Structures are given as structure tokens and as C-alpha cells.
């Protein structure tokens, strides 16, 4: 009996070791793919990067929440597809933003992301797509502001390329969400909800920059 338990524990440890090794390799591959290695973030850009890390954390949790929508295979599939890219973005931001410089409100961003994902999914597939479109539209503007700053200052070309890629991928999510509800009339409630999501995202960015 003891031998069997020992073998099982040994097998579990081997499996865990393999999973950890794969996770490390995936992280390294992602950082190389995005060109994140060797990037140094200046003090003038630290607040922006802190908000980027907070935003990508929230995005991962939005899609995690949406992935719990057992009532909609469409929502779960979209969450799985978009969420994979957001997890890569978060890996990159975790690499670029030291723990000591991250937002102190990370737990709040996780809860808010989870809540937004679940709430929008609860109102159905179209509501979820409209929510993602609103979020990603804001994120595009947020990244483009940083991109324009780096171009104007002619600074940090490696970081510029990385942010451009992240922005492009967020735009892909935005367009995908738009195409899924193309032709749907928003109406007053839809426009109001989109404004609330966009406004809330703006407040979250301001808070993440400071705290």
C-alpha cells in the first residue's frame, strides 16, 4: 500500500515538474515572440506600464468570468480565443513591470474583471460582444496614446514595437466583437452600457496609474 502511494506521489511530482517546465518554456517563448527581453522602462513611463499591467490583469479575468458561462457555447468559445492572447499580454506586462511597481489594487481589478465578464455574459451573447467591443475600443485608445508619446519623444523603439503589437491584437478583438453583432441596433440601453463600460475603464486606468 505504501509503495503504491509512493509511486502515485512520485508520478504526480513528475507530472507537476513537467507542467512547470512547460509553463516556463511558454513564458520564455512568449517574451521572445513579443520582443520583451531587454526592454527597460523609464520612470516617465512607469505609470502607463502600471496601468497596462492592471488592464491586462482585468482583461484576463473578464474572459475567465465569461468562460464560466455554461449557458452559452458561443461566449465560452470567444472567451477562450480572446483570453489566450490576453494571457500572453499579461505575461509580457508581468515581465516589464516589477512587483514593487504594480498597482496596489490588483485584487480589485481581478474582481471587477470577473464581475464584468460574468455580468455581460449573463445578459447573453450579444451583450457580451457589445461589452468587449466597448472595452477594446477604450484599450485601443489607451495604447495609441502611449504609442504616440513614444513616437513624439523618439524613445524606446523596442517598447514601441511591443505596444504596437499589443494594440493591433486588441483591435483584432474589437473588430471580432463588432463583426459578431454587426447590424444589431444598440438602442438607448446599449449605448448607455457602452458608455458606462468605457467610462469605468477610464477611471480604472487613472486609479491604476496612481495606486
Helix and strand layout, with pairings?
Elements: H1 2-34, H2 46-66, H3 73-96, H4 106-122, H5 125-153, H6 157-180, H7 187-210
Helix pairs in contact: 1-3, 2-3, 2-4, 2-5, 2-7, 4-5, 5-6, 5-7
Task: Write up this protein.
With 211 residues, this protein is mainly alpha-helical. The chain is built from 7 helices and no strands. The protein has helices at 2-34, 46-66, 73-96, 106-122, 125-153, 157-180, 187-210. Helix 2 (46-66) packs parallel to helix 4 (106-122), helix 2 (46-66) crosses helix 7 (187-210) and helix 4 (106-122) packs across helix 5 (125-153). The longest helix has 33 residues, at 2-34. The chain is globular, with a radius of gyration of 19 Å. 31% of the residues are buried.
In short:
This protein has 211 residues and is an all-alpha fold. The chain has seven helices and no strands.
Helix content: over 70%
Could you describe the largest sheet, including whether it forms a barrel?
Answer: none
Shape: globular
Question: Which percent range describes the beta-strand content?
Answer: under 5%
Quaternary state of the chains: single chain
Tell me the number of strands.
Answer: 0
Tally of helical runs: 7
SSE ordering: HHHHHHH
Structural class: mainly alpha
Mean pLDDT: 89
Task: Calculate the terminal CA-CA distance, rounded to whole Å.
Answer: 54 Å
Amino acid at each position: 500500500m505504501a509503495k503504491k502511494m509512493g509511486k502515485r506521489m512520485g508520478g504526480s511530482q513528475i507530472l507537476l515538474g513537467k507542467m512547470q517546465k512547460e509553463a516556463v518554456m511558454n513564458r520564455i517563448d512568449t517574451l521572445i515572440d513579443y520582443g520583451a527581453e531587454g526592454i527597460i522602462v523609464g520612470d516617465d513611463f512607469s505609470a502607463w506600464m502600471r496601468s497596462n499591467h492592471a488592464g491586462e490583469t482585468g482583461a484576463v479575468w473578464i474572459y475567465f468570468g465569461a468562460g464560466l458561462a455554461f449557458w452559452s457555447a458561443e461566449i465560452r468559445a470567444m472567451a477562450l480565443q480572446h483570453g489566450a492572447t490576453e494571457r500572453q499580454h499579461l505575461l509580457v506586462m508581468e515581465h516589464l513591470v516589477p512587483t514593487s511597481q504594480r498597482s496596489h489594487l490588483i485584487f480589485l481589478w481581478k474582481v471587477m474583471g470577473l464581475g464584468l465578464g460574468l455580468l455581460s455574459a449573463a445578459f447573453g451573447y450579444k451583450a457580451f460582444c457589445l461589452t468587449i467591443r466597448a472595452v477594446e475600443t477604450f484599450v485601443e485608445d489607451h495604447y495609441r496614446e502611449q504609442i504616440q508619446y513614444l513616437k513624439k519623444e523618439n524613445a524606446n523603439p523596442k517598447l514601441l514595437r511591443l505596444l504596437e503589437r499589443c494594440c493591433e491584437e486588441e483591435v483584432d478583438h474589437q473588430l471580432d466583437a463588432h463583426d459578431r453583432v454587426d447590424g444589431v441596433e444598440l438602442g438607448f440601453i446599449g449605448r448607455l452600457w457602452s458608455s458606462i463600460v468605457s467610462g469605468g475603464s477610464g477611471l480604472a486606468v487613472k486609479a491604476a496609474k496612481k495606486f
